[in-house]
């Protein structure tokens, strides 16, 4: 297993429409295992394949989103080729984050309940319902598979504010990486004497 790089916005992979999964083989299982490790390493509630540069209709949601703390040790929910079969007219506006926008949180209105039909890792069909955070996580990740990101759901001004924060955070990360690289280079210089 490996922790994969989560691509930050505006990586073009985040705007791609994912293809349906057709091969349920060992490499798909490996991808799911790597995505699970990545999601946990980044403390995410969900992760879509497009966020790690794979254009397949595959998303993971942490069971925490459906059952809260008591589900901490339950297996991750694997959702393949999802279809929204029903969503409530009632919406809830709540704070939302995204691993592709680290450190950015915005208020997004989403249906309060949703039901999806999908396949599991063995290509068996199942239905899953989410309410509150569960619905929000499922819909956020389904969006990713359609090339939609959370800032697409808010007003122009909110989007500008979120992007400004995101760009500043990305610049800070780049500066930090440069500092680390410079330090590592320095350490490698052999000392004469
Ligand atoms: Zn996201």
Oligomeric organization of the protein chains: single chain
- Average pLDDT, rounded to a whole number, is 96
Derived from helix and strand composition plus strand pairing, the structural class reads: alpha+beta
Percentage beta strand:
25-35%
Individual helix count: 4
Q: What is the CATH architecture descriptor?
A: Alpha-Beta Complex
CATH class: Alpha Beta
Strand order of the largest sheet: 1-2-3-6-7
Main sheet record: 5 strands, antiparallel
Report Rg.
Answer: 19 Å
Number of domains: 1
What is the end-to-end distance? 44 Å
- State the CATH superfamily name: Peptide deformylase
At CATH level 3, the topology is Peptide Deformylase
Shape: globular
Counting DSSP E segments of at least 2 residues, the number of strands comes to 7
Order of helices and strands: HEEHEEEEEHH
> Roughly how much helix do the residues carry, as a percent range?
25-40%
Low-confidence stretches: none
Bound molecules: zinc ion
Overview of the structural elements:
The structure is a single chain. With 193 residues, this protein is α+β, with helices and mostly antiparallel strands. The chain has a single domain, classed as Peptide Deformylase (Alpha-Beta Complex), CATH 3.90.45. It contains four helices and seven strands. The strands form two sheets. A five-stranded antiparallel β-sheet has the order 1-2-3-6-7, sandwiched between helices. A two-stranded antiparallel sheet has the order 4-5.
Topology record:
Blueprint: H1 26-41, E1 46-48, E2 58-61, H2 64-67, E3 77-87, E4 91-98, E5 101-111, E6 113-119, E7 125-131, H3 133-145, H4 156-188
Antiparallel strand pairs: 1-2, 2-3, 3-6, 4-5, 6-7
The structure holds zinc ion.
């Amino acid at each position: 297993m490996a922790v994969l790089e989560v691509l930050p916005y505006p990586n073009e992979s985040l705007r791609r429409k994912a293809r349906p999964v057709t091969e349920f083989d060992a490499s798909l299982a490996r991808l799911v295992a790597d995505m699970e490790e990545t999601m946990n390493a980044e403390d995410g509630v969900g992760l879509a394949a497009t966020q790690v540069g794979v254009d397949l209709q595959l998303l993971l949601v942490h069971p925490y989103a459906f059952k809260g703390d008591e589900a901490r040790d339950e297996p991750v929910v694997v959702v393949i080729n999802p279809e929204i079969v029903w969503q409530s007219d009632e919406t809830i506006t709540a704070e939302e984050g995204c691993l592709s926008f680290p450190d950015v949180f915005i208020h997004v209105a989403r249906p309060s309940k949703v039901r999806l039909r999908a396949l599991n890792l063995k290509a068996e069909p199942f239905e899953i319902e989410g309410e509150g955070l569960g619905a929000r996580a499922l819909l956020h990740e389904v969006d990713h598979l359609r090339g939609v990101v959370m800032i697409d759901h808010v007003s122009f001004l909110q989007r500008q504010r979120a992007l400004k924060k995101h760009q500043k955070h990305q610049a800070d990360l780049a500066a930090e990486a440069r500092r680390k690289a410079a330090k590592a280079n320095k350490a490698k210089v052999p000392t004469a004497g």
